[in-house]
């Protein structure tokens, strides 16, 4: 997808998305009850304007990408900007690709590193649940980028756990993090990666303040809900072809509130054999 199209799709999907937990999503109510609302103004930044950021030195390119995401509205807080600036995306993307483009990229094994605007969106949704000392679980950790961001946010007293079912990706994500600003956290054990089926979560460090799922589940896996702390939040894409990024908040009485944040497109949360069968 071209950059402008990706930005446009992101922008419009966010505007169309319901933000409440009503049984019938608001976008369907629009179709039933009223003429559709006028199209939202695009927040998309023209490609030539983004390209101006790339003329800086290579070490500044990651910072320029974050600046772009700020202008585009995906990065909204200093906290998320700081962590994304501290973890250089180029370390998590194969050489020869363009790490500072706002696009998902292949990492092998029918998997992708998510687009920067999706990383930013998930960090913004989870930031209050990634305070120093908190526990975070990243299911489908892939390249390790987002797990590294979580680790930087929860710090040495916290826990950031990445679960990935492809052993080669766990090895690669470990290498990636070792070259990043989160290397010491990996060394000290507050950041860890494990080869496992993420649909079962990772009970060893539960309960979690924050759970992120980086692959689309047909429905919310109950073990993940069980491993969420009361007051905790999970962000998970749900669906097959049509997917919603769902925000699952666990209330103090153990009940959960679910709302849709955006229409999204992720690789499936599935078995290892199903994922690899077409590779
Ligand atoms: N957030 C990651 C996303 C990687 S793509 C990143 O930006 O790099 C989704 C990942 O989920 C893939 O690496 C895939 O291998 C993994 N995955 C899919 N199903 C899984 C499962 N059942 N258990 C663990 N990982 C899974």
Explained architecture:
The chain has 279 residues and is an alpha/beta fold. The protein has a single domain, classed as 3-Layer(aba) Sandwich (Rossmann fold), CATH 3.40.50.150. It is 36% helix and 21% strand. It has eleven helices and nine strands. Strand 1 (105-108) and strand 2 (111-113) form a beta hairpin. Helix 4 (58-72) runs antiparallel to helix 5. Residues 1-57 have low confidence and may be disordered. S-adenosyl-L-homocysteine binds next to strand 2, helix 7 and strand 4.
The biggest sheet amounts to:
7 strands, mixed
Q: Helical proportion?
A: 25-40%
User: So what's the overall shape?
Assistant: globular
What is the radius of gyration computed over CA atoms, rounded to a whole number of angstroms?
A: 18 Å
Major sheet strand order: 5-4-3-6-7-8-9
CATH domain topology: Rossmann fold
Keywords: Methyltransferase, S-adenosyl-L-methionine, Transferase
GO molecular function, one term: protein-L-isoaspartate (D-aspartate) O-methyltransferase activity
Catalytic activity: [protein]-L-isoaspartate + S-adenosyl-L-methionine = [protein]-L-isoaspartate alpha-methyl ester + S-adenosyl-L-homocysteine
Protein name: Protein-L-isoaspartate O-methyltransferase
């Amino acid at each position: 997808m071209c950059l402008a199209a990706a930005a446009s799709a992101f922008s419009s999907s966010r505007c169309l998305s319901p933000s409440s937990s009503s049984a019938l999503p608001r976008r369907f109510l629009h179709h039933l009850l009223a003429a559709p609302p006028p199209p939202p103004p695009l927040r998309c930044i023209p490609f030539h304007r983004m390209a101006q950021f790339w003329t800086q030195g290579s070490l500044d390119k990651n910072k320029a990408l974050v600046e772009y995401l700020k202008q585009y509205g995906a990065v909204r807080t200093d906290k998320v900007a700081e962590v994304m600036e501290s973890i250089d995306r180029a370390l998590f993307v194969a050489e020869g690709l363009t790490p500072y483009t706002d696009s998902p990229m292949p990492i092998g094994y029918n998997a992708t590193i998510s687009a920067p605007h999706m990383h930013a969106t998930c960090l913004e949704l989870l930031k209050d649940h990634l305070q120093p000392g908190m526990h975070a679980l990243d299911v489908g950790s892939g390249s390790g980028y987002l797990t590294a961001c979580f680790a930087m946010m929860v710090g040495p007293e916290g826990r950031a756990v990445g679960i990935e079912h492809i052993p080669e990706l766990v090895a690669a994500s470990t290498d990636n993090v070792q070259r990043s600003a989160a290397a010491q956290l990996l060394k000290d054990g507050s950041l860890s990666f494990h080869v496992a089926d993420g649909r079962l979560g990772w009970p060893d460090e539960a309960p979690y303040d924050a759970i992120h799922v980086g692959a689309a589940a047909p429905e919310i896996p109950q073990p993940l809900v069980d491993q969420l702390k009361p007051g905790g939040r999970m962000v998970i894409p749900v669906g097959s072809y049509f997917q919603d990024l769902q925000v699952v908040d666990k209330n103090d009485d153990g009940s959960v509130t679910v709302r849709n944040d955006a229409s999204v497109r992720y690789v499936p949360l599935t078995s290892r054999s199903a994922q690899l069968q077409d590779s």
